[in-house]
Specification:
The protein is 73% helix and 0% strand. It has 181 residues and is mainly α.
């Protein structure tokens, strides 16, 4: 009879550990799935921003009857192998240039197509900021799970590692100058 109780006790312990393992694994996978979804949203918003800038460049050249290229290097960005974070920074520089052109050439603000581009850019920026926030939220959640017991054991078993936030900052390193804009 004691052997039966021992055997039953072992089955209960193994079952509890199995349930805990499955629960922790599912939490890690849920966070990874949310991060992947956020990356897709960020990719989409960055592609839209890039397309808007190309559209703005053509419109500005045609409206100003000018052969001058305002957005030099914009067409080469697509062929570069850079991260979404670096792409976002480069596109933001071009958006700042677009805002400066808007100030330098007030006649453009009366153009319907230019107004549409500016409005679409604002909407796109809102989507991009929301996607970045979404990404960082679930990255933080995943990183918390990876640091805590028992999910850290499950993460280590499956090779799930700590992810960087969208801005590329690593809170684990000793570098304090990575908060530059």
């Amino acid at each position: 009879m004691p052997i039966l109780y021992s055997f039953l006790f072992m089955i209960i312990i193994i079952g509890a550990v199995g349930i805990l393992y499955v629960y922790q694994y599912n939490q890690l996978q849920h966070s990874k799935t949310k991060i992947d979804h956020a990356e897709c949203l960020i990719d989409e918003a960055l592609r839209e921003k890039y397309d808007l800038l190309l559209k703005a460049d053509k419109l500005i050249q045609s409206e100003l009857n000018n052969d001058k290229t305002f957005f030099k290097g914009l067409d080469k960005i697509k062929s570069e192998n850079i991260s979404n974070f670096d792409l976002d920074r480069k596109l933001t520089e071009f958006i700042r240039l677009l805002e400066q052109i808007k100030l330098d050439y007030p006649d453009l603000t009366n153009n319907k197509g230019f107004k549409e581009i500016i409005n679409e850019n604002k909407k796109n920026d809102e989507k991009l900021q929301a996607a970045k926030s979404y990404y960082n939220k679930y990255t933080s959640e995943l990183n918390d799970l990876i640091r805590k017991f028992p999910s850290n054991v499950v993460a280590r078993m499956h090779g799930i590692e700590i992810k960087s936030f969208f801005d590329g900052k690593n809170m684990e390193d000793e570098i304090i100058d990575d908060f530059k804009l």
